[in-house]
TrEMBL record:
Protein name: histidine kinase
Protein origin, superkingdom: Bacteria
Keyword Cell membrane annotated: no
Domain spans labelled Signal transduction histidine kinase subgroup 3 dimerisation and phosphoacceptor: 195-262
Protein source organism: Nocardia jiangxiensis
EC number: 2.7.13.3
Enzyme kind, highest EC tier: transferase
GO MF terms, alphabetically ordered: kinase activity
Pfam families, per database record: HATPase_c, HisKA_3
Keyword terms, alphabetized: ATP-binding, Kinase, Membrane, Nucleotide-binding, Phosphoprotein, Transferase, Transmembrane, Transmembrane helix, Two-component regulatory system
Transmembrane segments annotated in the record for this chain: 21-39, 45-64, 71-90, 96-114, 121-140, 146-162
UniProt KW Cell inner membrane keyword: no
Region (Disordered): 343-362
Reaction equation(s) it catalyzes: ATP + protein L-histidine = ADP + protein N-phospho-L-histidine
Length: 397
C-alpha cells in the first residue's frame, strides 16, 4: 500500500514541477474558483459564454500539459484572447478581475513554451494587450483599468520568456545527451562488428589452415595404406598429422586467449615459447629483453608470438643445431621482436610460402598480413653481415 501511494505521488509530481499533474490540478481548481466567485454582481449570459469558453479552452492545457504542443498552443492563444475580451465588462469584486487573472496565468504559461518561437509569443501577447486596451478605451476607463494590468502583463511575459530560455537550454542538453547515447550505441555496435570480424579471422587462420593441412596428411596416409600398403610412409604422414594437430591445438588456445584478453605479459609469453622450443626441439635459443616492459594489446601479443613461433620453426628447419637468439625490445612508442639464426652453408634461407608447410607453420607472408592488422611491420632477410637470417616484427606500443 505504501509503495502504491509512493508511485502515485511520483506520478503526480512528475519530473518537471511546472508541468506536473499536481501543479495543473491545483492551478485548474484555483482558476475555477476565480471564475465562479470573483465577481460582485450578476454576470451577463454572453460574458459567461466568453469567459467560460476561455476557461474551457484552458482545460486543454490542464489535460495535456506541454506534451501536445500542436493542440495546447492554439488553446492557450484562444484563452488569452477571450480573457482579454472579457476583462473590461466583468463585474469584479476588486481591482483585479477574474478574466485578467486568467489572462496573466495564460500568458505566463504560453511564454515558456519552447515549441513556439519568440516572435509568435510576442505577437500573440501584443494582440491580447491591444484587445485589453481597446476594451478599456471603449468603456472610457483607460487610466484606471489598463495601466496596471498591462504593466503586470509585461512583467509576466518577461518572466515566462526567461523561464522559456532556461527550459530551452535543458531541452538542448537532453538532445545532446540523447545524441551522445546514440553515438555510443553506434560505437558499441561498430566495436561488436569489429570483434566479430576478429573472431572470424582468428578462427579462419587457426581452424581452416590446421584442419586443411591435417586432412591432406591423413588422406595421403590413407592412400599409402590402402593402395601401396606402405606402412612406413603412412606412419611418417601420421606423425606429421600428429604434429599438425598439436600445433593447431596450441594456436587455437592462443586465439581463444586473445579473444578472452587473458594473454600473459609479452616478455613472459616469449620466454615460455623459447623454453618450449628448448625442451621439445632440443634447440639452443637465447632470450633477451631490452627496455622497460609494459602492457601490450592482446592482439599484438598473439601476432608477435606467432611470428616468433614461425621464425623458430624455420630456424630449426633451415639451421638445425645452430644457436638462435630471440630479442624483445621496448622503445618509447614501439615494441620490436627479432629472431636471428646463422645461415648454414648448403641451406636455403628463402622466405617460406604463404600456405602452411609440413611443419604446420603459416609462412612469413601470412605473418606480414597478421602483423599489419595490428598496425605493425615485418621484415625477413639476411643481416648486415650476411651471415645471419633475421626476422623482425614491430608493432605500436
Amino acid at each position: 500500500m505504501a509503495q502504491r501511494l509512493l508511485r502515485t505521488a511520483r506520478r503526480l509530481l512528475g519530473t518537471d514541477p511546472e508541468n506536473s499533474p499536481l501543479f495543473r490540478i491545483v492551478g485548474g481548481l484555483l482558476l475555477a474558483a476565480n471564475l465562479l466567485w470573483n465577481h460582485r454582481g450578476p454576470v451577463p449570459v454572453w460574458l459567461w459564454v466568453v469567459f467560460g469558453g476561455a476557461y474551457a479552452i484552458f482545460l486543454i492545457y490542464e489535460v495535456f500539459g506541454d506534451n501536445r504542443p500542436r493542440l495546447v498552443v492554439p488553446a492557450l492563444i484562444g484563452c488569452m484572447m477571450l480573457s482579454a475580451v472579457a476583462t473590461v465588462p466583468w463585474p469584479d469584486t476588486n481591482s483585479v478581475s477574474a478574466p485578467v487573472i486568467q489572462l496573466w496565468v495564460t500568458v505566463g504559461i504560453f511564454a515558456r513554451q519552447i515549441a513556439v518561437s519568440t516572435r509568435t509569443i510576442l505577437t500573440a501577447v501584443a494582440v491580447a494587450a491591444v484587445l485589453l486596451i481597446i476594451g478599456d478605451l471603449l468603456a472610457g476607463e483607460f487610466t484606471t483599468h489598463v495601466l496596471t494590468p498591462v504593466a503586470i502583463l509585461v512583467i509576466v511575459l518577461l518572466m515566462g520568456l526567461y523561464r522559456r530560455q532556461y527550459r530551452l537550454q535543458i531541452h538542448q542538453t537532453e538532445m545532446l545527451l540523447e545524441q551522445t547515447r546514440r553515438a555510443q550505441q553506434e560505437h558499441a555496435r561498430a566495436a561488436a562488428l569489429d570483434e566479430r570480424a576478429r573472431i572470424a579471422r582468428e578462427m579462419h587462420d587457426v581452424l581452416a589452415h590446421s584442419l586443411g593441412a591435417l586432412t591432406v596428411q591423413l588422406e595421403v596416409a590413407e592412400g599409402l595404406l590402402s593402395e601401396k600398403d606402405d606402412v612406413t610412409a603412412a606412419l611418417t604422414h601420421l606423425r606429421r598429422s600428429h604434429r599438425l594437430a598439436q600445433d593447431g591445438l596450441t594456436e587455437a588456445r592462443g586465439a581463444v586467449a586473445a579473444l578472452r584478453e587473458d594473454v600473459p605479459p609479452l616478455p613472459e609469453a616469449v620466454r615460455g615459447l623459447v623454453e618450449g622450443y628448448r625442451r621439445d626441439r632440443r634447440m639452443s635459443v637465447d632470450c633477451l629483453v631490452d627496455g622497460e616492459p609494459r602492457a601490450v594489446q592482446s592482439a599484438a601479443v598473439v601476432s608477435l608470438l606467432r611470428t616468433a613461433r614461425e621464425a623458430l620453426t624455420n630456424a630449426a628447419k633451415h639451421a638445425p643445431g645452430a644457436a638462435v637468439t630471440v630479442a624483445l625490445s621496448f622503445t618509447p612508442d614501439r615494441v620490436r621482436l627479432s629472431v636471428r639464426n646463422p645461415i648454414l652453408s648448403g641451406t636455403e634461407p628463402a622466405e617460406p610460402p604463404r600456405a602452411r608447410d609440413e611443419n604446420g607453420g603459416y609462412g612469413l607472408t601470412g605473418m606480414r598480413e597478421r602483423i599489419a592488422l595490428v598496425g605493425g611491420t615485418l621484415s625477413a632477410g639476411p643481416g648486415r653481415d650476411g651471415r645471419d637470417w633475421v626476422v623482425t616484427a614491430e608493432v605500436p606500443g
